[in-house]
Amino acid sequence: MKKFLFSVAVLAISVLPAAHAQKFGKLLKDTPGAVSYTFRTDFAKDVPGTLDKVKAMGITNIEFSNLFGKTAAELRALLDERGMRCTSLGVSFDDLNNKTETVVQNAKTLGAEFVRIGSVPHKGPMDLDLAKKTVEDFNRFGQKLQDNGLTFCYHNHGFEFAPYQDATYFDYIVQNTNPKTVFYEMDVVWMHLPGQDPAAILKKYPKRFKLIHLKDLKKGVPSSMAGSTPNENCVVLGTGQINYPEILKAAKKSAIKYYYIEDENLGSMQQVPQSLVYLKSL
User: Fold this and answer.
1) Total tally of structural domains belonging to the chain
2) pLDDT at 134 > cutoff 90
C-alpha cells in the first residue's frame, strides 16, 4: 500500500506542468530542495539509489548534513551524474570550530555555497553569557567562511528563544552578529514550537535569513522549548499547525535563497511527494 501511495504521489507531481523547470507555484519560484536528514535511513543503506528516488520526486537540490560514508568528491560525482547539486553543507559546531579547513574543503568540493550549524554547545537554557559567546563564535565563523568564498548560517533549534529583556536571546544574537557575514537558516517548526511566529520573524529580519527548512507539526502538539519532538509528529506540509501561506509570502520578500523540505518522519518517502503537491497548490 505504501509503495502504491508513493507511486501515486510521484505521478501527481509528474503531471503538474513544468513542476521543476519553470514556475513551481505562486509562492515558490522553483521546486524546493530537501535536507539529507529527511531520507537518512535510505541514504545510510544506498546513496546512489536514494538520490535516484529523490530526483524522481523532482528534487535536485540537497542540503547534506552527513556524507553517509562517502568522501565529498565521491558524493559530488554521484550528484553530477544525476544533474543534482548540494547548495548547503550542515556540519557540527565542533567540526566548524576545530576542523575548519576540512569543512571548507568539503563544502567547496560539493559545490556548496553555504555552511550551516544547527546548535551551539550548551548544558542548560540559553543565558546572556552563552549568547555573548555565541555572538563571538558566529562572527569568527562568518568571517572565516566569507574569506573562503562561503557563507555561514545558523539553524535555530528552539532554546535560543528563551526570553531576554523585552525580546529573546535569538534577537540578541541576530542584532549583535555581523550582518555582512552571519546569516540564518530558519527551521519553521523549531521556531513555531517555542511559541514564535516564523512569518513575523522573517518580516523583522528580512535580510538575515538565507535558507529555510520547511516542515510541519502535528496538530495538538503543545508548545515547547525542547527543540525536539517525536518523529511521528512531523507531518505532511499543510496538514499540521504551520501557516505556510503566510510564511511563504514573508519568505518571498526576504533574502532566502534556498528552501529545503525537512521531514523527520520515518515515512518521509511517502510524505515528501504529498508535501510537494501541497506547496505546488499554494
Assistant:
1) 1
2) yes
